């Protein structure tokens, strides 16, 4: 832990480039094992993430496609000289609980963790932890005199939250307040037909949540990396116009 803090501090001292803090808040509940593609039903069922599911073999899982998308996202930023100096990413997963599985650091120091599914959908805990980590990193920027862009929160889920309702309410209230005060940009993304789009809308007063077409994680993360690149070439505080046309290739309202 001590070495991790030293590395984080060293990054800020050695690289005074304005930062884009990005937290990927990812659903890794049991339902992310749902399959698509060529699969066969076994006739068996199992209970996961608050629902009864048919057991199948073959196909690809939502989680494996998400993992592939993360690889594309990181590789695209690493090959962009300006974006790789600016972007700082952390990953929070939520299932029965919420955990930071990759903390903020220079992207070239980071290794993408292997995601694993388990349990339910404690979305409220996940978002609250993500917001805490973003606030902590902003504080470190200020202490070291490093400028930064408005933080990003990417919230991805394939279901409805079934964790502590008080945590969820607190997370929604905190997120909305930060957005209204122009202290946060959120990208709410639904995965699959069971995604709680109405809940995602509660987190996002100004931006309509989007649902992935099929499992187009690669297309989404390619678009996200291009948005990071565009932002890194602007001045902090400058309004950035997102590429709405490219959103249509991977997302739908």
TrEMBL record:
PROSITE patterns: VWFA
Domain VWFA: residue ranges: 21-231
Descriptive protein name: VWFA domain-containing protein
Taxonomic source organism: Tepiditoga spiralis
């Amino acid at each position: 832990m001590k070495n991790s803090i030293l590395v984080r501090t060293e990054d800020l001292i050695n690289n005074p480039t304005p930062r884009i803090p990005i937290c990927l808040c990812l659903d890794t509940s049991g339902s992310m094992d749902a399959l698509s593609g060529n699969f066969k039903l076994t006739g068996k069922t199992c209970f996961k993430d608050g629902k009864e599911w048919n057991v199948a073999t073959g196909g690809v899982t939502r989680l494996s496609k998400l993992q592939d998308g993360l690889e594309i996202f990181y590789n695209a930023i690493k090959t962009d000289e300006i974006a790789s100096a600016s972007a700082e990413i952390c990953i929070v997963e939520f299932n029965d609980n919420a955990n930071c599985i990759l903390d903020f650091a220079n992207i070239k120091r980071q290794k993408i963790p292997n995601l694993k599914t388990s349990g339910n959908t404690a979305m409220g805990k996940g978002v609250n932890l993500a917001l805490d980590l973003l606030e902590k990193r902003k504080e470190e920027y200020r202490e070291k005199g490093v400028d930064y862009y408005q933080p990003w929160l990417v919230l991805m889920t394939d279901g409805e939250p079934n964790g502590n309702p008080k945590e969820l309410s607190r997370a929604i209230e905190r997120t909305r307040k930060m957005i209204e005060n122009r202290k946060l940009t959120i990208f709410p993304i639904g995965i699959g037909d069971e995604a709680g789009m109405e809940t995602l809308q509660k987190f996002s007063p100004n931006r309509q949540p989007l649902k992935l077409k099929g499992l187009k994680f690669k297309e989404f993360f390619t678009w996200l990396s291009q948005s990071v690149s565009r932002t890194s070439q602007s001045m902090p505080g400058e309004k950035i116009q997102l590429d709405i046309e490219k959103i249509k290739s991977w997302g739908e309202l």
